[in-house]
Design brief:
Layout lengths: L11 E2 L8 H14 L6 E6 L15 E9 L6 E8 L1 E4 L6 H7 L11 H10 L5 E5 L9 E7 L7 H13 L3 H11 L6 E8 L8 H18 L3 H5 L5 E11 L16 E3 L2 H9 L2 E6 L13 E11 L3 H14 L1
Helix pairs in contact: 6-9, 8-9
């Protein structure tokens, strides 16, 4: 597998929600309360580091300490006390199939498609991509994963044919549609589908290291893969992302000062706002699924968001993501 050098440790207390503006952070907390199986009142990250050089991909000496209530939606039970959890990055393995499939259940809204085939492709690509689990957890639950899949390499697979058809169908703008079609067809061999899913309350301190690992592995794969064809398959010019946002049903039309957060949009994942700011183009579309019914979100609609980001913007994204977490 590609080399995965260790990184420095960080000591952080009380991780914030995953979005930028105060309003968006409040909404993120409400979303979290609805969606996350485990909820803690006090969180302390004792140390973070990158995947080690050992083949199992462990995050050495990385522990998350949760203090307070832990509620389990499966039986309604509650636990009070201190829970020690060591998060670790691993290469994808077949045993992660169910965990990834659960996280991707609504990746394409409520569309019936070859999700199992899509998960299989993610798991088969072990040189680029990581899954996040709790070390020594008997259940081996997957809390997050990230990967980048070449759109051209897998274009003939049923799941990618269906994904392409879906994106072209939901794209509402003709000018954007031509750009989208170009990335899905003529330029597909130079496009990486960046797939990133996680539980909502994953400690945000893990995010910079998770994305650093991904983009480092992509870079290493262009040199380390055994064949020229495989090495070229990771020479991306663009990344394509599919994510979800909350969009106000009647957004304000007043112009906002430069640099002021737009509260008409709530990003369910903090890094997606960074990607959106760096994107060459994007479009949103309505979703059939509407998961959150909290009264605070009654004026918002869950939407899909598709973005195209030039690969040369990755270094800027990484710096911004580190700054976001460091300043929180």
């Amino acid at each position: 597998m590609p080399r995965k050098p260790g990184r420095s440790r960080h000591f952080l207390r009380h991780p914030p929600p995953f979005t930028f503006s105060p309003f968006s952070r409040t909404m993120s907390l409400l979303y979290s309360a609805q969606k996350v199986k485990h909820e803690s009142k006090d969180t302390e990250v004792k140390g973070l580091c990158a995947p080690g050089t050992s083949g199992n991909g462990f995050l050495k000496d990385c522990s998350l300490k949760n203090t307070g209530e832990l509620s389990d939606s499966s039986d309604g039970g509650e636990f009070e006390g201190v829970i020690q959890a060591d998060f670790a990055f691993f290469d994808p393995k077949p045993k992660d199939f169910h965990g990834l499939k659960v996280l991707l259940q609504t990746y394409l809204d409520d569309k019936q498609w070859d999700l199992s085939g899509f998960v299989d492709i993610i798991l088969e690509q072990t040189t680029v991509g990581s899954v996040v689990k709790i070390e020594n957890d008997e259940d081996e639950g997957v809390y997050a994963f990230v990967s980048a899949l070449n759109m051209g390499r897998y274009k003939d697979h049923k799941c990618f044919i269906e994904l392409k058809e879906y994106l072209l169908k939901v794209c509402p703008k003709e000018d954007v549609s031509s750009n989208l079609r170009s990335l899905l067809e003529e330029s597909a061999n130079e496009v990486g589908l960046l797939v990133s899913q996680r539980v909502v309350n994953l400690p945000p301190q893990l995010l910079p290291h998770l994305y650093d690992a991904l983009f480092d592995e992509v870079s290493w794969a262009t040199e380390d893969e055994p064949t020229e064809e495989l090495r070229k398959s990771f020479c991306f010019n663009y990344y394509l992302l599919i994510c979800k946002i909350y969009k106000h049903k009647t957004p304000e039309k007043k112009s906002r000062p430069t640099g002021k957060n737009d509260d008409s949009i709530i990003f369910t994942k903090a890094e997606d706002e960074n990607f959106h700011e760096l994107s060459s183009w994007s479009f949103s579309f309505p979703l059939h699924i509407q998961k959150v019914t909290d009264s605070e979100l009654k004026d918002y609609r869950l939407m899909g968001l598709v973005m195209a980001i030039e690969a040369n913007k990755v270094s800027t994204f990484r710096k911004r993501l580190h700054s976001l977490i460091d300043e929180s």
